[in-house]
């Protein structure tokens, strides 16, 4: 494994060969041994922890930031957001500010060709022509 048997025994408080080292050095473990134990525990921590540790949290924060930027947030808008301690409700709130719910989301529109010049100036895009007098339009990306 990832941890020496003596270390596990010592961490659990049992008597054992580590105990001899501990008492031989007058109640204090040598710093090199403590450092080695810390390194062994660090290797095991992902298997022992119930919450994400540093590396995973950093990755989740970066993913959340990239997702929000993809929805249209700017670097400046996100500078005040604490991604490390953000809960799911806060993230969902930020998402819904940029993505309206299904009922209010703009839909494609069927328009007469007479309306076309004005709608194109507003940012609508032609999807396809239906016949010689009507076209299907897609709403502007950013209202």
Automatic annotation (TrEMBL):
<protein>
    <submittedName>
        <fullName>Integrase/recombinase</fullName>
    </submittedName>
</protein>
